[in-house]
Automatic annotation (TrEMBL), chains A, B, C, D:
Gene Ontology annotations for the cellular component aspect, listed alphabetically: cytoplasm
Protein known as: Putative [LysW]-L-2-aminoadipate/[LysW]-L-glutamate phosphate reductase
HAMAP family membership: ArgC_type1, LysY
The organism of origin for this protein: Caldiarchaeum subterraneum
Active site (catalytic residues): C151
Domain called Semialdehyde dehydrogenase NAD-binding: residue spans: 3-143
Bilayer-crossing regions: none
Protein family: Belongs to the NAGSA dehydrogenase family. Type 1 subfamily. LysY sub-subfamily.
Pfam families to which the protein is assigned, alphabetical: Semialdhyde_dh, Semialdhyde_dhC_1
Amino acid sequence: MARVGVVGASGYTGGELLRVLATHPDVEVTYASSREYAGKPISSVHPNLRGYYTNLKFSNVSVDEMLKRCDLIFVNTPSKVSVDITPQLLESGVRVIDLSPDFRLKNPEDYLTWYGFEHPAPDLLQKAVYGLPELHREEIRKAQLVASPGCNSTAALLSLIPAVAGGFVELDRIVVDVKVGSSEAGIKPSLGTHHPERANVMRPYEADGHRHVAEVEQELKNLLGGREVKIALVPHAVGSVRGALATSHVWLTKNITEQEVWRMYAQRYAKEPFIRIVRGAPFRYPDPKYVIGSNYTDVGFAVEGRISRAALMAAIDNLMKGAAGQAVQAMNIMLGIDERNGLNTPPLRPA
Amino acid sequence: MARVGVVGASGYTGGELLRVLATHPDVEVTYASSREYAGKPISSVHPNLRGYYTNLKFSNVSVDEMLKRCDLIFVNTPSKVSVDITPQLLESGVRVIDLSPDFRLKNPEDYLTWYGFEHPAPDLLQKAVYGLPELHREEIRKAQLVASPGCNSTAALLSLIPAVAGGFVELDRIVVDVKVGSSEAGIKPSLGTHHPERANVMRPYEADGHRHVAEVEQELKNLLGGREVKIALVPHAVGSVRGALATSHVWLTKNITEQEVWRMYAQRYAKEPFIRIVRGAPFRYPDPKYVIGSNYTDVGFAVEGRISRAALMAAIDNLMKGAAGQAVQAMNIMLGIDERNGLNTPPLRPA
Amino acid sequence: MARVGVVGASGYTGGELLRVLATHPDVEVTYASSREYAGKPISSVHPNLRGYYTNLKFSNVSVDEMLKRCDLIFVNTPSKVSVDITPQLLESGVRVIDLSPDFRLKNPEDYLTWYGFEHPAPDLLQKAVYGLPELHREEIRKAQLVASPGCNSTAALLSLIPAVAGGFVELDRIVVDVKVGSSEAGIKPSLGTHHPERANVMRPYEADGHRHVAEVEQELKNLLGGREVKIALVPHAVGSVRGALATSHVWLTKNITEQEVWRMYAQRYAKEPFIRIVRGAPFRYPDPKYVIGSNYTDVGFAVEGRISRAALMAAIDNLMKGAAGQAVQAMNIMLGIDERNGLNTPPLRPA
Amino acid sequence: MARVGVVGASGYTGGELLRVLATHPDVEVTYASSREYAGKPISSVHPNLRGYYTNLKFSNVSVDEMLKRCDLIFVNTPSKVSVDITPQLLESGVRVIDLSPDFRLKNPEDYLTWYGFEHPAPDLLQKAVYGLPELHREEIRKAQLVASPGCNSTAALLSLIPAVAGGFVELDRIVVDVKVGSSEAGIKPSLGTHHPERANVMRPYEADGHRHVAEVEQELKNLLGGREVKIALVPHAVGSVRGALATSHVWLTKNITEQEVWRMYAQRYAKEPFIRIVRGAPFRYPDPKYVIGSNYTDVGFAVEGRISRAALMAAIDNLMKGAAGQAVQAMNIMLGIDERNGLNTPPLRPA
């Protein structure tokens, strides 16, 4: 049993890591950090976990103590906090999966542009592996530091990869319209997440440039060997609690049928354990509703020949494939065990 | 008091017409048709209207009888039904507001292409006025036949008109991503609208070409004096009951700031009684949530200079500005009364 | 036009008062108070009211200044704040409708028991009129101080009054199980109202004795000329934004049919402009869903002869008949105008 | 591996059985019946199960064929269908878990009273074991026929058992107010489950006597050795998809503190693997929200000494502990394996 720690365990992503790891056959959670709740039982913050982790309490220990207890650590902190902790952890040789954006971008200048701070450890950016198994499985296997992708980015990338790699879309006119549930905003209340205000919304936000664009453009450019890609991405809060859907609207550079698109996606994702291609009635297009609670990405598409355009769609559970599930998938790869361990429960339906 | 009839009064749009007209100061509803519920009180189908229309029952009478009772008739039937009824009504001289798509398109061939039937009264297509007051107020005033716009079309057009007229967007790369509530599908149950399946969805539909595209392209082309416009429109069902949001993603043909966009929108819509421009925190972008129950369209925008693109947004209540409210607005114009009569209740909040 | 002020105008009940009063034909809002938002436009806090109140800003003035501007004042503050302001207002002769609980109870000791403070103005408690028109219409007409009922209390009382007055229920075994939407908790965010936590709940709260019990027991006892009534009331938060349903479970003291219950309710409420009796398929029992946005109370009942018990139900919009609407109804009575003025818009459906 | 069949596999409970059994370590699903979908892949009806059961299709075979394929059969049909199939299955010696109400009641006359039909196999009623492990674990172990409880009944019983057994509540004044999500109504669409009508409801139904009362009264009477118990039960549809909460309102026959109630519940349920007792802030009372996707029942209580009454609450996922999960728990007991096998995934949160 690998001993794993979760730094930042009291929020939704932390809680989801604990939920998934609670029944994982190959690991044991030996540390769950929280400054605010140190000393309290896990279930006092995560009522779904009543009856689990009865021998573990939230705590808040030194890096040294953390290293004694853990073989692998999930760092699940806000941006600009991980950059302080993670370098210390790495020095000791422990393996780290960072769920914050702090090590996702390769170019240090991008942190200034997109996140507004100068990155204090630019050399680590080269060392970090972007934790999308569908792009970097082999590098993840050997990585000491995995930078787990954002939820919007995961959905955007998985909708686009086969099309961009396939060379049939205009690279400078890609629109990614994202819809997300409220859990994406985390556990901290605000007016915007207050139920009466948040219920039933169709609310665009960060419409003039969302930070996740940086990693999507980076990874697609990398996929193309350096060719630039422009992404116009606008996320929209909708009334669900869980789920994220990316609808990527693309303009075609050549005639292509839905059948041909299907072939390219099927081929690209043939061996992916967590990608399912959706096609045919009665559930014709991907909908996050049917992946809730699981690590799956449902992918689908529509082609409108009349005006040479397509809609490429990817649906995920933002807390699973968009956060905790994907991090555990990376962990499984790093540990050399079956990628699906701890992640094989089917999605809920209806939910 | 004008005497008005509602053909097709037992569904959601019919019910919304009855709701709005119940307290309208200048009209009286003298006819509410339903084959299925003929003889039953209005409130047996529309429980919100208990205590209203206590002297009116659903009925189903001949066209002649209808004409005796009514000065103006809302025809609110499915596509291909209105084409049978409306010509007869028009012959008698009564004024008609048709809420179906049967008279929205000018080119008879478009009915074959988009709706799959040969239009039996192509000459009436020229006579009909597309009932968007923001484009055709003066023609509506004199019209005998108004073809009231679809809900997706209304949101799409109102988001785009000032930008397209302003000449700063690429006309062949316009993406309109629409989110709509469940009431848009009407009152008839199906698996897709069954609550357990419909709750919490983020579900694309008709992603390879929605019929409303035809009227959006027609009206924008007309606005530009005949220049072609391509619209890639994908609607998405989300978890709300009411509301529609169009996010129009456009690529800019010149440098333009949000301030300049604001000026163009403010100017274009300056005298519109039902358009409100949204700008500035804390409710920065339009959200249908804040127009529920009203005839308003909230319009807003975001510009991302980095890649020369903008998001242009319009939020409506799909049953009001997207259907019944807009039809009543047209009626007010036709009757020469204040356009806001019967439509001045502020939106609900929270809702 | 009467000039009215709203003390506490930035929350949900304050916003709802402004919404209703915006189109009220007989009054003008001349004052809307907010400490936090003083100087800001109404629509910066209430985005639904964009385009309304364009000449009014939130402000925060002295009592003297308030009295100059207003003929009648809605005091809409948290408990223990109104007791400080209201006495000063009353001294000047202005009429006050207090939406807080501070003047609802007649017995000063009840404030110690249920609210935990010693009431500083016990003499005013006798002067105050409990603002439920269905019980105290004539006293409201002449009142200087109306204490507007709580939302749970309104639903509980209106479900029970005819049955308790009719003498067919056990008075010491009444259970009132209430379901309420999230708007009932007000505009201030907390973990309990955070959308991911509040969506989809079925959450009992204050299950060991809710404060509203005090006013329900007081009014029923008063109705019975002093006979004691025991109320076991448990509210439950459910997933809606608006609405409150009281299901009063009672044990019968004699054989009675649904038909007889109907007659007693119909008789008691015959002249009530805002009570509708629900009976018969397909919408057999009251549901707040069909009163949303209106001041109506839908009342209904079921009798189970087998075990001599009945369920008596009342459905309201908690922000309307449960708060702002009821206060405006009281205002109309006080002003001697039609009770329905400003309150005649039918409920939304679907919503 | 035991070979199990699911008769009635295309609805929500059937789908939930397939979901749970998909990763169950000790059984294999060898038969999934559906008349309507015979020949179609499982995922064409249950899109969450894409990628599972790739070698199984819906089919509809004779009882003989069924018996060849299966060691144990879940019969998941509407009332009055199981009474036709189950006797044949039992004759062959196969073990059956019936999820319909057809074998829950011991007294054949109760079927006439509550279900409106004469039971054709009254002798089997004595043979059947009521499948609530918390009451009948040992009998389930040896049973050939288990009659799995209804969802309302499960919540009602688990909230009441320790109190009724403990002898501190009035047995003829028990009110059970139930709240349930929409999945409880099954997969067949109707106006009442149409999303626009079903969203945001607080809708009482079968308020004059719900069928599940029969089994609740039977089991409590049995628990008391034959003493009669009266249950006034009213279910309410609320806006969630999953979940059921029973709030049992009881009047106390003696002074008892929450601490004492806690002791009785803790003792009674000490060894129950799927009952969790909820107590203490910040999640003070049970809420189905925190058991979603799991087989847990969260139980809690509040005592109001002032009027000698208590609220006893039990929260379940209606498709799990209220249907499929409980049936699998019974199967585990029948197979002599760990009761938690296949059921150990923690609930989702937030959901």
